[in-house]
Every structure is written in structure tokens, then in C-alpha cells.
Specification:
The complex is a heterotrimer of chains A (95), B (482) and C (492).
Chain A lengths: L4 H10 L9 H15 L23 E2 L9 H5 L5 E2 L2 E5 L4
Chain B lengths: L4 E3 L2 E14 L36 E2 H13 L7 E2 L2 E4 L9 E4 L9 E6 L5 E13 L3 E3 L6 E5 L6 E7 L6 H18 L11 E10 L9 E6 L2 H20 L8 E5 L4 E4 L12 E2 L6 E2 L2 H9 L5 H12 L3 H8 L2 H11 L4 H19 L10 H12 L5 H14 L3 H7 L8 H14 L1 H8 L6 H11 L6 H11 L1
Parallel strand pairs in B: 13-14
Antiparallel strand pairs in B: 1-2, 2-11, 2-12, 4-17, 5-6, 5-16, 7-8, 8-11, 9-10, 12-13, 14-15
Chain C lengths: L5 H9 L5 H19 L2 E4 L1 H16 L10 E5 L26 H8 L3 E6 L38 H8 L5 E5 L6 H7 L2 E4 L20 E5 L2 H11 L17 H4 L8 E5 L9 H16 L3 E5 L7 H16 L17 H12 L2 H14 L5 H21 L5 E5 L15 H5 L6 H6 L3 E8 L5 E8 L4 H15 L14
Helix pairs in contact in C: 2-3, 10-12, 10-13
Classes of the chains: A alpha+beta (95), B alpha+beta (482), C alpha/beta (492).
Chain lengths: 95, 482, 492
Amino acid sequence: MSLDPATVRRIAKLARIRIEESQLPQLERELNGILGWIEQLNEVNVEGVEPLTGGAQMALKLRDDVVTDGGISEQVLANAPDRVGDFYTVPKVVE
Amino acid sequence: MSYVIEGSTGPWEVVIGLEVHAQVISNAKLFSGAATAFGAEPNSQVSFVDAAFPGMLPVVNRECIAQAVRTGLGLRAHINLVSRFDRKNYFYPDLPAGYQISQYAQPIVGAGVIEIELADGSTRSIGVTRLHVEQDAGKSLHDQHPTKSYIDLNRSGVGLMEIVSEPDLRSPEEAGATIRKLRSIMRYLGTCDGNMEEGSLRADVNVSVRRPGEAYRTRCEVKNLNSVRFVMQAIEAEATRQVGVWESGGVVEQETRLFDSARGQTRSMRSKEEAHDYRYFPDPDLLPLVLDEAWVEELREKLPELPDDKRARFVREYGLTAYDAGVLVAERATADYFEQVAQGRDAKQAANWVTGDLFAMLHRSGRTIEDSPVTAAALGRLLDLVADGTINGRIAKDVFDAMVETAEAPDAIVERRGLRQVTDTAAIDAAVARVLAANPDKLAEYRSGKQKIYGFFVGQVMREMKGKGNPTLVNEALKRRL
Amino acid sequence: MFSLTLAGTRAALRAREFSARELATAYLAAIEALNPRLNAFVTITPELALRQAEAADAALARGEAGHLTGIPLAIKDLFCTAGVRTTAGSRILAPFVPPYESTVTSHLLRDGAVFLGKANLDEFAMGSSNMTSAFGPVTNPWTRRGSNARLVPGGSSGGSAAAVAARLALGATATDTGGSIRQPASFCGIAGIKPTYGRCSRWGIVAFASSLDQAGPLARTVEDCAILLTSMAGHDEKDSTSADRPVPDFAAACARSVKGLRIGVPTEYRSDGMSPEIEALWQRGLEWLREAGAEIVDVSLPHTKYGLATYYIVDPAEASSNLARYDGVRFGARTEGADLTDMYENTRAAGFGAEVTRRVLIGTYVLSAGYYDAYYLRAQKIRALILRDFTEVFRKVDALLTPTAPTAAFMQGERMDDPVTMYLNDVFTVPANMSGIPGLSVPAGLDGDGLPLGLQVLGKPFDEETVFAVGAALERAAGFSALPGIRAGMEQ
């Protein structure tokens, strides 16, 4: 699988990271290098193998339905780069 | 008699699928211990997990899972004992982690069915494809500031059930009926309060059109409809739009749209222009959800009676018509009220009073049955007073009005206002005699054949007796004298 | 004072040979003197450390010494520490002050430890050299014989390892996702263990690759690591992947005999290009264990060679999702933009370094529509095969012995041209993360340049005790006593 500039741009958009045009060639090279190296995995026969999901082979524990958290708006807002009153803010979105 | 949109080239069928998002009734959120109550101060019901701070991890709330299972059982659906949480990745300010924890590949509930009744009395079975649990997003406010949108994460992480229907619906009415029925089932089960104005129940509709007999054409999604009325209007508006596109030689593009209720039209959602690539993958912070079969059975056993079963039982046990029973079971509180009134009494009478006078009064005063000034016990007592002849039906209505106004017990009102029914035949006979004597010309008319004047005499006698005459005895007396 | 191990210092404190305050003061002075050269610490916390040391002295005076009372530690800057800046080695978190304490560090605080500061690391724990930190690279306190060239300490826990090796801390917390504890331990001549996945809680640790990340200690000796791990480990309800198992007495396990244990040697770990020195050290390690009464068995882990490539699909995929929350809205640095998308793109471009950007993009790609089956799903299946290999092998043996890294520490700036070259550092360590099993690196010898080389012990899930026993036996036999040129207590 080889990436072309358009694909790199599309992925960068999905990942919300700005990539300058000047960075594209090197990035494309590096990413293709990594992906090319990963191609070796196609050799492996995975017929009938169940994928491993997660590193822990245990039962999922469930919590009781009790309110144990929240009511900490100051702490939750303290690190916000642009806070107005009790709200986080972002540049205005038009839907 | 199916629903069609009449285009310039002929009729078009509408194909509709529903995606309903129902907020789970629970104390705490799906993956965090913050509270879920509506209307709190902004960002006051937010834990670090809900705000996706570095290093935070989700822990599943058992009650949210139980609510999803109960709803699935209420939809007669298959419960998947093993299900999985997946991440749905996209960027939006009300989605703090940049992904929503949902269920994609293996939902907790599989195929089920919703039975709906339409206005013409027909019924249909609407297929449910699946139900899964997922996190709700926070709220963005776009009108508080000229250049900024405000973000409140109180709702972020509240448990949602997403219920997807098969594309079995063919009209706005069917869609409306399906949402109403689903809402009723969840209210019965106590799994969602179905309050569309507050946003605890939201519907997205997938709409496409086709000429009768054709295969499916491209569909569009209309999102965030927060009333049944808007759902129905949006379907019609969107279907009409699509017919217009096809008939003018265009092609309907798959897209997401919003309903502008003021204009009665749908419009494209600008922020969703790009096709979303959600990159679903199993959430590595959670393990597969494995339900104990015995636990599911326990939930099943403890389920309250569902609306359809209750309606059937009302018809069977109380001899009500399907229609009356249907009206009474629409809300569980109403059904419970009715049953309390009907216990040991004439069920038909009870049904008439509840669906008639009680409903009218509640509607007039803008109240719900939960805060009715006349309790089921009090109404039952009123019916007893009619049944044992203490008062007649006409007087009972006056007593009811007085009960609404003063919250007094019916017995007290009857005594205080001297409303006891008169059963003294001598007194009745005397009243009849007085009325007939006072209206000789009407009497003559009646005796010459005008049967209809009988009603006039009844009315006059009742007035004479201040409404308290026993109707049966009044009729007997009148017939004797006429 | 600096020549004492953690265990030795603990005993000395309890015997009141010196106070916790004296100890903390000495370590802080050493940091002040040497950190400018090594850059092992991103943030130094002298006031906090002295306050904690004073509380420790009060507890010691009352006779209420806890498991780690008064012991000065470095905390990898990936662990959220309440009220103390936590950067993850990234510009995007440079201003972040967590209002909560990670579970692992809260255990250490509960047991009376003293926090000297936050240790440097590769940005978001992505790297094997500590060259990608936004706060500058870390320098290995070891140098090649006759050379002044700066070497890497390994990564991503390079700061933690350098601090311990240079005796700027008695121990350090670290995390290991693909070898980030074990490889730096090997490069810096110290011990380090990645416990079984689920042994330590991940709550409050900046997430990188959720199914692989695991916290663990770095310290001078195997016993020191065992003491620290005892404190760090334990079930946490707030982490759904945390194992509900009691924490054994790991330190006691270090004294266990290895007589009768079967030690596996995986054939596939022997590669054609393996350096003769490492091959020789490996053989020596096997000999030491034989002499201690263990039986050496040849075993096969057929899917070994696919471990790295599999890792470099799973790790970026999970990371791309875990790092989506760094968007300038609720915490961290923000760069403004004309609209929302602009703001996100600017913030993340300014905040993420090159390696992080590469991994997020690879991860986004392998999860994207049309590629999920070919990459991520396939990788998770191969991962299942890797686990199966280990499960089969552990029916026959109790532990495995392998080298920790293919080379000794390399120069700063080396291996940076091609990302894949850097990734190859992890070839021996990655399988333990993919399968979740515990792995310990023990300093075993020096190479021709006088640089430390480590040997790795791999064990069964939740059998860290056997791993510690074998590791301690190796340590005793190796008698590794060399010290780096740059360290506290040395006149420089």
C-alpha cells in the first residue's frame, strides 16, 4: 500500500493536523517506508484466528449506579485555554 | 390505501427507517460517576472522565446495561450475551475525547419488533434491527457570543440507547406511531422518560423514495428531530424534495440534513459535508461485555407488564373495546389509575369516566394524570355513589367538578349540597304532575304523536327536582302519566 | 549515601543513620549539579520533596515507617501528579497541571515516597532514544571508553533511566509499551521490569497505546525493582483493564532459588546480524543459570519476527485515537485559528512533534475505511498467534532468557533518518507487550566500548515472582558493578 500526496492530505485532515505542502514529500516518504516494512505481515496465515482484543483476558467489571463524581466545575475548567464563565469555548461553529 | 407522494410523473412510495436515541434513566453516567439530571449549572455534572482528561478511563455502569436489556426485552428482541464496545472517532467540540464509545460490530441487543396501531385501525409489525448503548455528547451553544461557541459537557457521557428500525416504514403516520409506541414501551419499563422537548428522546430519520415496485434508491438522513410532529413533517418535506430532484432529472446525493421547522423544509448540514470515516475499532480500555444468562432472566421476570399485553388483558378482563383499552394503556400511569378505579366496579363505567370527564378536565387544566386533583380512590368512590343509587349520573358530573375545585371527598360534597338522589316515588309523581300541568300545549303535541317532546318533559322534571330525580323512576312516572 | 541501593537506604533510614530530609537534600543537590548536562528531569520539585521528606521523618520518628517512607524517586512525566505540571514530553501539554494523582503514584505517596521531580521522556512515550522530547534530549550518563560523544539513554523512559543510573534518584516510575522500561534499563546499566498487563493501574497515566501500556519501576537492582513494584501494583476499580489479583511479596521472590526451573531459549531471537558480544553475553547468562541449577531448554516462538511490524500497526492505531483529545479546548496549549477546524489543525501541528505526527497519521490510516481489515484486524490476529506461541512454550518452561536490546546505547542523532531503523531497537522487547507477559531487564555485562548490556527474563502472565527469582540469580552471577562516568557523588 503506497500513499500519494492526496491520501496523506486526507489522512492529515481526518487527524486534524496541519501539514504544510513543504512537509509532504518527506512525510510521504517516511510513511511509505513504514507501511512498506509492515507489508511483511501479509505472509502470515491468519485463517481461522480470532483477533486478540485488549491485553487483558478477564471479565469486564461493572459499577454500581451511584453518583460519585462531578460537582467539580472549577477543577474541570481550570486548565481551559479559553474559558468564559462556566463554559469551554471554541471558534464559533455554524451548523 | 398506502401513502404516496404524487409527483408530476406519477406516485412515489416513501421508504423510512428510524434511528432513535433514548437517554437511559440512571443516576450516574454510562462510564463515569457523574450525575445525569437535566438542567444543572453548566459543567457541574462533569467528571474528568467525561471531559476526557489525560489518563482517564471508562468504567461501565451496570444499571445502564440493565436498562438496555430491559428495553430489548420490551421489544421482544434477542439479547446478545456477549457484546463489545467500539470507538467511533471524529472531531467535534461536544465530543471531548475525539471519539464516542459506542457499540458497532457487536451490539447488546439484536433483532426485535414494535407493533403499531394506525388511525384506520390497522396494525403493522415494524422490525427493529438492533439496540446498542453509547455515550451522549455534550452541548454546544452557538448563540451566546459573536465569535465563540460555548461548550457544556454535562450531557457528555450520559448513557444512550440507539434503537434502529428496519426500513419498514412507509408513511409519516407510521413513523409517528412507531416513535410513540417505542416511547410508551420505554416509559412503561422506566428505561427512558421519552421527553422529546428536553432531549431525552431524539429521532433521526432515513428517507428515500421510489416508484412502486422498484428497488431502494439513495437515502438521506434528517437529524435531531425533537418532536413526533417534526418527524412526520420532516419526512414529508424530505420525501417531497427528493421526488422533485428525481423528477427534474437530478440525482439525490446521500447526505445528512436538518429540518427547518419554520420553513417546513430540510437543508444540508454544513459541518457534515465530508463523508465521515469513523475508523471504528474495539475500545482497548474496555473488555467484552459478557452478560450472565441468569441475570437477564431475572430482569425478564421483573419486567412490568408491557402496553400491548396490558391492552389485551384489559379487553379480556374488563370487557373493554380495543380502542378504549388502547387509550388507557398509552401511559402506564393512566392504566394504573384506571385499574384502581375499576377494581370491584363496573369497568366500562370506569373507562368512560377516565377517558371522558377525567381526561377532559386534565386537558383543560394542563395537568397530567400524575398530578390529577381527583385521585383514583376518590373517583372510585364517586362511581360507588352512582352505583348504589345515592346520586344519579347527571349529579355525579356536578360532584366531579366540585371535587376538582375543592379537593373534597364526594360523600362530603353530596351531603353538604344535599345532592342525594330522590327515589321517593310520591315526590317524583308529584313533580311529573306539576310539569305536565304547566305545559298543556306540549302535552297535547306529545299525545298527538310528537314523540320527541318526551325529552323535554324529562328535562323539565329534572329541573323541577333540581336534577336529583332518579332517572329510572322519573321515566316510569312520566310514562304512567303520559 | 549515594552508594546505597533503595533497599539499603530504606534500612539506613529506619536505623536513623541519616534523615529523610538529609537524603532528599543530597539528591536535590545532585540533580541541580548534573541535570543541566543530562536533562533527565523536565520539572524538579524541591519544595514538594522537602515537605514530603519532613513528613517522612515525622513518621520514622513515630516508628510508623511505611513501605517506602523517605525514599526519593523520579516520576516519569507521563504520570499525572496533582498540582505538579505533567507534560508527557510534549509542547501540547506544556502548561497542563493535573487536578488529580495517578493511581500508581498515589500508591507511592501512600507508602511514604518522596518525589524529586518529573522525568524526561520521548514525546507521548513514543520512541526508543528520548530524542523526541519537546524539552530536549536526555544524555546517557555512560559514555564510550575514550569518547565524549553524547549517547542516548534509550526510550521512551530515558529520563527515568538516566536519573537512576546517574544516582539522581533511588528509583523511578516508568512505562513500557514496546520496551520503554527494559531497553533504557539495558542502555543505562540498571534493572527495570514491565509487569504483566493489568498488574498496575493505568488510571492517570497519559494514554499512548491502551492495550500495551504498562507502568513499572526502574532501579539499580532487581530487589529494588521488586520493592517498588510491590508498591505500584494492585487492582484499581477505576481501570477496567486492571487485574483483580493480590500483590505478592515480590522482594521475597528475589531470594528464591532457581534450582529445577526450566529456562527457555527462543531460537528465533537469534538473528544473523546479532553482535557477537551480545551472543556471548546471552550464552554467559545461560551458563550462570545452569550453574545455579536451572535447566536450559531450546524453544520456538515462530511468530517472533512479525512482532515488531504488528506492534507498529497496533500502537499507532490506538495512539491516534488516544491523542484525539489533545485539541486545545479543555487543557493544554492552543493555537488560534480562523474557525474550529483551523484551530484544531494549528493546535495539533504546533503541539505534536514529528514522531508523534507520524504515528498518529499511520494510525489514522490503518484504521480508515477500507484498510481496517488489512491492517488492524490482521495485526490483532497475528497478536493472538504471538500470544499462542508463548502459551505453548510456557507449558514446557518457566521463563525465557533473551537479550534485551540488539545493541548498546548509540549516539544522539543516530538512527533518526529512517523511522524504521529506530523501531528495530524494540525487536526483543515488543513481544512481551503484544502478549501481555512480564519482562525484566538485568544489567549483565559491558560491551567492547565499556557500555552496559542487559539480559531479558520473560515469564508467565502474573508470574513476576519467577521472573524476579531468575533475574536476581542472574544479577548475583553477573556481579555487574560498573558505574557510569556521570553520577552523583563523583567530582566532575
